[in-house]
Amino acid sequence: MNDEEDSDYDTLGLHWNDEPQEGGVLPNAEVSIEGGVSAITTPEHYIPLTQIKVPQNNEVSITTTNPIIDSIIEEVSSTHTTTSSTYEERIEIAKRYLKAGLKASSSGEFDTASSCFTAGRLQLGSKGWECAYSTMLKLCSEGANSAYVLGEFDKMNELIDEVLKQPISIEDKFRVYEIKMLALQAAGNNHESLELGIDIRRQLGFYTPPNKPVSILMILLGYILTRIYMGKRTREDLASLPELTNQRYIMAQRILVLIELDCYAVQPTLFPLINYLNVLATLRYGISPANACDALGGFGILLCGAFGNPQRGRDMAEAVRLILAKTKPGELTHIISRTCLDQGFVYHWTTTTLQETLAPLLKGYQIGLDTGDVQSAGLNQLMHISHTYFAGRKLAEVDELTSANVGLQNETTTATRSSDIQKLDVSLTQSRILGSLIQVWYLVVAELRGRELDKSELNFDGILKFANEIDNPALRSYASAGQLELKVIFSEWDKAIDILEQAGDVRANLLALFAGVRFTFLEALVLIKAARSSKTWYKRWKWKRRARKSINIIRRWMKRGNVNVIHYLHLLEAELAILNGNSNMAKDSYSLAIAVAENNGLIQDQALIHELASAEGIDNHGDYHMKQAIKCYNEWGATKKVFQLKDSFLNQ
Questions:
Q1: pLDDT category of residue 370 using cuts at 50, 70 and 90
Q2: Around 561, how many Cα atoms within 13 Å sit in the side-chain half-sphere?
Q3: Which of 24, 436, 487, 612 has the most CB atoms at less than 10 Å from its CB?
Q4: Lowest-pLDDT range, 78-82, 279-283, 329-333?
Q5: The pLDDT of residue 257 is above 60
Q6: Are the beta carbons of 313 and 279 closer than 8 angstroms?
Q7: pLDDT value at position 433?
Q8: Do 642 and 630 form a contact (C-beta atoms < 8 A)?
Q9: CA 272/CA 228 separation, integer angstroms
Q10: Which residue intervals of the chain bear CATH 1.25.40?
Q11: How far apart are CA 448 and CA 541, in angstroms?
Q12: Is it the case that residue 354 has pLDDT exceeding 90?
């Protein structure tokens, strides 16, 4: 049998375009059925069949509003008009579907892309791996990516398994391995993703530290080595490093980027070592723009959050922007979503106010949606929500942002792509982890506004239980920070100290995030209150000592240029002065704290400072400060807190 006959008929002699009905005679049966059965065989020799219909390209529904994609699909349709296409022609059709799918993916039309990739695979059939290997590999790999973005995880896993079972190189399997890691991260299986990443790098021929905690000594030694190797390179020097073209090295670095995300969530002490490897690889071998941006951005996170050098950390972020500026327009649009995360990790440590980070974070979220980088989109969204809260925006605004995501903590949602993709409430593939992180702010706002939760809604206990089940210290610390926020605002100081004792090292688990900065401030405030209420000199000394440690951390941040903690420090100095019996200093510090908070539009912090000043009767203006506190809380939208203050004020 020649190749053309083999491509046109199956083992029953069925042409790929035939649609025999039950009880019918197989057309051209003599081609493959022994005994020479023909179309004139008597009825008793008919072969009974249920209706068979081999899938055609026009059976896959493909809709798009993109004229370029539409023209490619129309070209495919016009080409495939005959019922006797050879296999070579079907390969060409599959290639055109691949082209259309890739174009749709780059335009954010992942449902269209998925349909194109499926149509292409149907054209190739089971012989695709043998006769059109490269096309079949791309159709399966990019189809898996589209399925991941759309939340079609069963389909994604089928396509990943289809590729991994082939006897092919690690380089050819790399794309689906990358998608598999992303999917594991979305499902909260960070330890499994981390182990997979280590194994992928081993297959590529690169060493990776094992998945276990790392000592402080090793972290410091790695930091010193990295700083020495980086030397005095400026942001311009870093952006001018030679281009890396070795694909094996590029793949190994990409896996390091994904491992970093796993480490940040579940193995925080390993995060620095992984980042050092990525930075050193960039310095030694050159720039692969996407990976270099993550490597330098990650080092900026460490410089700001761990090693107290925010200006040098900002240099890393600026180097990333210079690298992106050198790329062709639109070439690395998807990376912009990740670099916008620098607003949440780096820029707030220096002269950038929280208010100024909101627009870039929203932009990063929108670009992530458009390009299918749902992971970066989700992180930008989370930071946008938290910074909206910390920046003193109305609680109604924060409530609107969080309410759009209620339910994400219960199940992964299915992404859709439409013309209104830019809206913040567009559903996207989210992990339960991200949904739970956003739920923290939903719970905080609900409590402040006096809104009772439905029994079906996830509460703090549920979030902490989930964090413990998946062993995710970052989620656990984030939930603790949200709980502490509420206890401080509602002046529940005893419960606040209990949260502190149970929370552990929140700053390490929320490395470089402003949530960690805010926690440090609240921690110091709670410790001062604990010292004041202590009945023994030892407990008083213990709490005061811990409070001073946190205050000194904030003082160092301010001296190094952090404009977002100035009023925090003034308030803590006022409270510490009250503890030490220095009312004059307390009065001045309260006044400075109020002035800075008001100047920066931090209405919630104005309210808190006024409330605390009122409790101390500063300058015999207790009533004034209480009225201002009520006014500010009311303007902020904290209805329940306003009722609490009015009730206590009337009962004085």
A1: confident
A2: 15
A3: 436
A4: 78-82
A5: yes
A6: no
A7: 84
A8: yes
A9: 16
A10: 57-163, 516-650
A11: 33
A12: yes
- 438: Cα within 13 Å, side-chain hemisphere: 27
**Of the candidates 387, 409, 407, which has an alpha carbon nearest to the alpha carbon of residue 398?**
387
CB 295 within 8 A of CB 254: no
243 forms beta bridges with 287
Strand segments, DSSP code E, in 525-593 are none
| 3-state helix, strand and coil shares in percent for the chain, rounded to the nearest 5 | 70, 0, 30
Higher pLDDT, 58 or 487: 487
Phi, psi of 287 (to 5 degrees): -100, 120
For residue 79, the model assigns a pLDDT of 55
> Is-contact 210 198, C-beta < 8 A?
yes
The CATH label, of 1.25.40, 2.60.40, 1.10.10, 3.30.300, for the domain at 57-163 is 1.25.40
CA distances in angstroms from 555 to 460, 461, 548, 552, listed in the order given: 31, 34, 10, 5
Beta-carbon count within 10 A of 493 CB: 17
With a CB cutoff of 8 Å and minimum separation 6, the contacts of 57 are: 76, 77, 80, 93, 97, 119, 122, 123
Cα–Cα distances (Å) from 456 to 371, 407, 409, 411, 453, in that order, read: 33, 10, 11, 13, 8
- The span from the CA of 157 to the CA of 586, in Å, is 62
Give the max Cα distance, the chain.
112
What's the whole-number mean pLDDT along residues 433-454?
94
**Residues 139-155: what's their mean pLDDT?**
93
The closest of 652, 646, 615 to 633, measured between CA atoms, is 646
Asked if the model's pLDDT at residue 365 lies above 70, the reply is yes
Taking the CA of residue 615 as centre, how many other CA atoms within 13 Å lie in the half-sphere pointing to its CB?
A: 12
Structure token pair of residue 423? 């809206």
How far is residue 478's CA from residue 605's CA, in Å, rounded to a whole number? 20
In this structure, CATH architecture of domain 516-650: Alpha Horseshoe (1.25)
- CA dist 96 to 54, 64, 79, 118, Å? 20, 15, 10, 12
* Residue 312 scores a pLDDT above 80: yes
Tokens 């956003």, residue? 438
Residue whose C-alpha is closest to residue 394's, from 638, 111, 641: 638
Contacts for 217-226 with beta carbons within 8 Å, 24 or more apart? 218/273, 219/269, 219/272, 219/273, 222/272, 222/273, 222/276, 223/272, 223/276, 223/302, 223/307, 225/276, 225/280, 226/276, 226/279, 226/280, 226/299
Q: Which pLDDT value is given to residue 217?
A: 97
Q: Cα dist. 82→57, 102, 401 in Å? A: 12, 26, 53
Per-residue model confidence (pLDDT) at position 647: 87
Nearest to 594 by CA among 576, 567, 559: 567
Mean pLDDT of the chain: 84
- 67-81, 323-337, 388-402, 477-491: range with lowest mean pLDDT: 67-81
pLDDT at 187: 84
Following CA atoms 392, 551, 227, 190 in sequence, which dihedral angle do they give, to the nearest 10 degrees? Answer: -60
Q: Which DSSP letter does residue 14 get?
A: -
Question: In the structure encoding, which two tokens stand for residue 488, read together?
Answer: 């401080």
- DSSP line for 246-268: -HHHHHHHHHHHHHHHHHHHH-T
